[in-house]
Specification:
Elements: H1 3-7, E1 10-12, E2 17-22, H2 34-47, E3 53-61, E4 68-79, E5 84-92, E6 95-105, E7 146-150, E8 167-174, H3 182-188, E9 207-214, E10 223-228, E11 232-233, E12 236-244, E13 250-259
Helix pairs in contact: 2-3
Protein name: Thioesterase family protein
InterPro entries: ACOT8-like_C (IPR049450), Acyl-CoA_hotdog (IPR042171), HotDog_dom_sf (IPR029069), Sec_Metab_Biosynth-Assoc (IPR052389), TesB_ACOT8-like_N (IPR049449)
Pfam families: 4HBT_3, 4HBT_3C
Length: about 260
Amino acid sequence: MTKFDEATQAIRIDETTYDVCLDPGYCIGAPLNGGYLMAVVLRAAVDASPFEHPVSTTSQFLRSPVPGPAQVRVEQLKAGRTAAFARATLVQDGVPQIESLITTATLAGADPVYTDAPSVVMPPVEECVKLPDPKPENNMTLNAQLDLRFDPPTIAWLTGGPTGRPESRAYFRMAEPQDADPYVLALAVDVLPPVVFSAGARGWAPTVDLTWHLRALPAPGWLTLIGGGRLISDGWFDEEVEVWDSAGRLVAQSRQLARVGRG
């Protein structure tokens, strides 16, 4: 069991309830990363399902849970021959924190009938760069769990030169050697810096709603994350992320709605 597997573990208590312990190693300042929280919820939902893979997840982030004990409550909505539908709620101290609607199925790994190409061509990984290590007092503990190598223009906001477009791109793998699985992909769709940073905004940008789809089981090796946005308006922005595996297959897609950071 890797550190990430342990940090997302869900222990079944009864037919509908799972105990979890939210790990402080996945914080971005005070809040826990949304992709990490989705992975925790999905561990419970998949365990309760007759199918193996979370092919579609929509999560609404009602509050920001804190590290420590919590529960996931799973309500089965419908199960058919090829898919099952459930509602899963992350609860802490009796208060709902995240509500998710999850569709599970079993992917067979078939070759695609049709596939598009990545929306952007990335430079080789050796030409990409890491972010500087954060100061300990910033509590950016998530950074230690990840190995992210960024396309340099998309992190020019660090030196005061944002591109002016909502975009973020990087190669990604876990810091601890681990082949990517659906739970790592749940984390991957939400580990890029908010795309509004590259458009000139700064500050914590809390996710309100995030939907992502598991399209294929990833091959071992680097994942390629390509993030972009369509509209920043009235304090809101959207963010779409494509995740491609080392074999050049689209393995995950996401779209989220978030608040523009304040300060």
